[in-house]
């Protein structure tokens, strides 16, 4: 290759690991050893390569500009764009990227943003801005292509390893690991960027040309292909003890607590079904604007959900994550982890007093709690007000570690090992997909039962909504409130606001209505109209598109905005 290609070369940041796998930490060895082939000759060496390729390359390296992981920076942008969080720091444009174009307060006052989000994203999508830590589009692309390429390398080394025990089972476990994370990486790219690259070997030049960009829906198809391949590979597992041995080494021991653990093949396949359902749901429109279940968005980079789509989501989610299943999670560690307790997640950067925390809990997030919800009383206080002259004034702070109410969900902590990141799907997400699909297909009461189940599971302590005779609009209102409350800090919130139509310009049928806004002057409005007008799918980062220009007819800049 005679051109720098970000998506294919970033793998080499941290792939050379030691030859003895250690379950209680990430086992990083000598990074100066010259080749993968010389270092990876045993099962333990392959475990270190496969573990580090996921947790270090995929979720840690390159994210030191704000916090220190994929879960603090790219997921932070997701929450900012969903208006769950606000910010005032200049780092990485976090104070500007999530600011709507304008707001109209209850009294008719209109406040306009002088620097709209789309212009900010495109102004700072440049190589110099990346070098200065000011290009928001860069980080998710960096992480996910590093993750994808790491898996390509592991797959390329499998034939060089002599396994003890059931060699087929062990090889299939490694394959399922790589296929799962490749599916995850492509899902992340396809859900966020207008176009992307399909890279299927270590050099990035095989299969689809390294500069042959394809549309986001093609990337999602590739994600689905790998998730399904992971599932069929798991069907080839015949010796559970050897499977457990390998997977137990691949997942760090400090992540094998709470909802994290060594997934059985059946649990893993249910996680795959949840991700397949998610890929459909978050990449199509299901407009619910201003209480209208039949709203129409006239300018979008995707299409609207059909009854067939909802039935497909229902089928996958019915066979998705169940309560009690182990899933893929992350935890901070006192040493040798892949993010820190204080700065490694958007949740930890929000925890604490709002006048000093990096992120501030938005009034638009808080308005989704129902009266008496214990998740609110366990996690939020109104002891201080952070004042911002545009949209991020807030009366609420996220309590670090919660207030200690037994059996009630805790939203964020800066204590080592306390906060659990759901890297993939979760029981709550899967149940709420079942809820939404059922509601949209006319099974309203059944859908409401799933909402009640999630609220009970998280210790909300609110009255059930099933059996109360809610209309379609009423049921979707409950669904929207619960998804926003239950799934914050899980990398999904922006995608929800996008598919519900809220991020689109009001002139195109979008916008968000009935919002609570606190002003720096002390006024509280509860029926504010917000025109976000955000990019629905981001442009490819300039570090890729400039150095690796497209040789296909697919643009790297979203042409719909």
TrEMBL record:
Subcellular location: Cell outer membrane
UniProt keyword annotations, A-Z: Cell outer membrane, Membrane, Signal
Protein name: RagB/SusD family nutrient uptake outer membrane protein
Pfam families associated with the record: SusD_RagB (PF07980)
Record carries keyword Membrane: yes
Coiled-coil annotated residue ranges, if any: none
A GO cellular component annotation in the UniProt record: cell outer membrane
Family according to the record: Belongs to the SusD family.
Segment forming the signal sequence: 1-21
Domain of life, per lineage: Bacteria
Keyword Signal tagged: yes
SUPFAM superfamilies on file: TPR-like
InterPro entries in the record: SusD_RagB_dom, TPR-like_helical_dom_sf
Residue ranges annotated for the RagB/SusD domain, each copy included: 432-515
């Amino acid at each position: 290759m005679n051109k720098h290609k970000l998506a294919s070369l970033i793998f080499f940041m941290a792939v050379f690991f030691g030859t003895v796998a250690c379950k209680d930490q990430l086992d990083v060895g000598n990074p100066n050893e010259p080749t993968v082939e010389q270092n990876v000759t045993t099962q333990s060496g392959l475990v270190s390569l496969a573990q580090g390729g996921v947790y270090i390359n995929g979720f840690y390296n390159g994210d030191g500009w704000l916090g220190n992981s994929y879960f603090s920076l790219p997921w932070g942008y997701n929450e900012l764009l969903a208006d769950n969080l606000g910010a005032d720091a200049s780092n990485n444009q976090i104070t500007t990227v999530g600011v709507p174009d304008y707001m109209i307060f209850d009294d008719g006052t209109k406040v306009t943003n002088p620097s709209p989000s789309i212009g900010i994203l495109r102004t700072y999508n440049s190589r110099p801005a990346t070098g200065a830590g000011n290009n928001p589009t860069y980080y998710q692309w960096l992480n996910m292509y590093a993750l994808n390429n790491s898996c390509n390398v592991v797959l390329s080394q499998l034939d060089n390893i002599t396994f003890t025990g059931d060699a087929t089972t062990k090889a299939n476990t490694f394959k399922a690991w790589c296929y799962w994370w490749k599916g995850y990486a492509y899902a992340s790219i396809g859900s966020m960027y207008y176009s992307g690259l399909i890279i299927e070997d270590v050099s990035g030049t095989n299969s689809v040309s390294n500069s042959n960009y394809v549309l986001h829906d093609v990337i999602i198809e590739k994600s689905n292909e790998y998730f399904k391949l992971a599932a069929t590979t798991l069907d080839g597992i015949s010796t559970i003890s050897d499977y457990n041995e390998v997977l137990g080494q691949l997942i760090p021991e400090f992540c094998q607590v709470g909802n994290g653990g060594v997934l059985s093949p059946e649990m893993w396949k249910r996680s795959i079904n949840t991700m397949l359902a998610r890929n459909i749901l978050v990449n199509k429109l299901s407009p619910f604007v201003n209480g209208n279940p039949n709203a129409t968005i006239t300018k979008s980079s995707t299409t609207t959900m059909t009854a067939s789509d909802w039935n497909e989501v229902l089928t996958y989610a019915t066979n998705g994550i169940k309560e009690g299943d182990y899933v893929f999670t992350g935890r901070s560690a006192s040493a040798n982890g892949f993010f820190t307790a204080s700065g490694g997640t958007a949740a930890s950067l929000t925890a604490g007093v709002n006048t000093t925390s990096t992120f501030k809990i938005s009034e638009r997030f808080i308005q989704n709690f129902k009266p008496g919800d214990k998740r609110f009383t366990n996690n939020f206080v109104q002891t201080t007000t952070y004042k911002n002259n545009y949209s991020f004034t807030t009366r609420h702070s996220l309590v670090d570690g919660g207030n200690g109410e037994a059996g009630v969900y805790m939203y964020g902590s800066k204590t080592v090992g306390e906060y659990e990141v759901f890297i993939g799907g979760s029981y709550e997400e899967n149940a709420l997909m079942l809820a939404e699909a059922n509601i949209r297909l006319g099974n309203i009461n059944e859908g409401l039962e799933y909402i009640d189940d999630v609220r009970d599971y998280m210790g909300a302590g609110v009255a059930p909504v099933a059996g109360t005779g809610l209309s379609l609009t009423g049921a979707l209102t409950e669904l929207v409130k619960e998804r926003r409350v239950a799934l914050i800090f899980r990398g999904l919130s922006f995608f929800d606001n996008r598919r519900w139509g809220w991020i689109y310009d009001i002139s195109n049928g979008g916008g968000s209505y009935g919002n609570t806004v606190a002003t720096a002057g002390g006024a509280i409005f509860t029926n504010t109209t917000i025109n976000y007008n955000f990019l629905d799918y981001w442009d490819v980062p300039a570090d890729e598109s400039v150095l690796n220009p497209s040789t296909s007819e697919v643009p790297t800049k979203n042409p719909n905005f």
